[in-house]
Amino acid sequence: MQTDILCSVEIARLRMADQLVEWAEVVDILEEGIFTVDPEYNILSVNKHFAELVGMSKAELMGRKCYGIVHGTKHPPPSCALAKALKTREPASVEVKESKLGGATYLSKASPVLDEKGGVKYAVISMSDISPQKRLKEPLNTFRKFAETSSLGHGFADIKGNIVYANPSLQRMLGALKMEDLLGKNVIEFYPQDVQPKLSGEILPDVKKNGKWFGELPLKSATGEITPTIQNISLITDDAGKALYFGNAITDISTRKKTEEALEESKQKYRALVESSSSCICHIDLNGKIIFMNSGGVRLNELSSPDELIGAECTRGVKEECRGQMEQAVETAKKGGTTHLEYESLSAKGSTMWWESTVGPITDGKGRITGIVRVSRNITERRNIEERLRETTTFLDNIVHSAPEAIMSVDLNDLITSFSPGAEALFRCSAEDMIGQSVYVLYPEELEEQRKVWKERILSGETVRVDTVQLRPDGSVFDVSLSMAPLRDGKEDIIGIVGISHDITKEVKAEKALKKAYLDLKKMDQMKDEFLQNVTHEFRTPITAMLTTNRLLKDSVTDENLRKILELNERSAWRLNRLVGGILDYSTVENGAVKMNLERLDLAAISSEVVSTLQASADDKNIDVKIEMPKTPMF
User: Fold this and answer.
1) Does 521-598 match 277-383 at the fold level?
2) Is the pTM of this model over 0.70?
3) CATH topology of domain 1-147
């Protein structure tokens, strides 16, 4: 009976981590040898009495083969209770006299604990001294002593199922204020109705037959409240093997159930979060081996399956020159530190990739480091952009440094932030002297109001181009063509002003000289016009007199030949008059004041007049001048 109780206590201890310390203390005060082993017979834990029984410390026993310690054999003997339990996956017990353990007779019981798939997780073995001098009362009294203070529910019922003892913890579970409320009541009524048939028809008969039952059962209190529990029901017998009582060790697992449900929900959320992440997330063991990679990491590393990397070194694919960084990050994580690093690697398909990683420790509930997590983000595109940006920046810097123009930038407080070599040459000062100074030292004071207007326009996003003057530190003033534009950051926010000054001193001087020459020419042209007006006036006065005299003579002459001569003379005078008018017309054309008059002309008459004018000169030179006109309408 005592052995069954101890075995129940040990199994409950192993199943309930939150009671581990209490159970360790409990089993250490018992005078029975209790230990647990894995399916390979390796000792996992022992109580104090077992260590004293075999004459070794607990630490010395850990990992040793139990059959070598208990039986002194190299293999499990056929009569070993543990061998039977592991084979049948059912509890087994044998009575054996162990010469190696002082020659006493022990009842050895082995109880396997199975996982969800029915496999053996571990087994609990109890070795009870059943020598004649040992009586049942002694271990029962010992058990009752610790049961009164235990947080687990412990109780006994007679073979008919009537309660004969319940410790305070069990009383609380059953909703009883005192022991008298429970004594004599049948245990069946403290279970839900749907469980009662199984308890009375299967579980208790099985306990009577096999001596023990272990599993989860809901418990119903006197108020009807249902509590999930783990129950370890044992059959207590006398020395002759007669059944006396049912013993039960009950653990309230309602908190654990809620915790497990919350933990499972948390696991699902965590897994969903990890799997949906676009980053590469790796779980690395303390030996530096990859034991998990999310689907994002599989995709980014161009893998067909995470199995291609599971078990591989965490530095796999990392370029040789970057491996030291990764190894150091893993070592830091083992000590509880976190490392941020960038490194280059090759994917499964040989693609070169850059990663930004955070490597840190994974701890359990007690703060112990159990693994390492590496979260990596693919920054290949960013690195390429940065490289192109560096090339562009270098290119632009070369342009700025080689440009003959003065290029400078100022912040929003009008302080100079950059000063190109061209600016150094133009202003005859060094960048070192100018950076940090106000840009206004480069302008005459009379331009203060204009500068404010320019700045206001630039900060509104406008580009300003003006021809103005600037001032050198030595006090000399020179003409410039100045272009100013807003300087923006990566977010398109204006952070300053950039200006380009081009020295136009020579151009301004040339323009002034050109203006002066233009004014001089204009003045000379005006003098020419005045001269022509005076000359034509002087010409027209005698011409008018000639025409008047000729007209008077022609009117008084009767000789036909003389008349023709006078007519020719008159036409020549008019021709000279028109020539003088043409000179005035030329001046008018130059001044842009000419006006065109459209009218019909008699070309035949004009042609005849021209021939008549030339006739006298032609006759003197024996030249025959004729004119032939087509037979077309004359106007």
Assistant:
1) no
2) no
3) Beta-Lactamase (3.30.450)
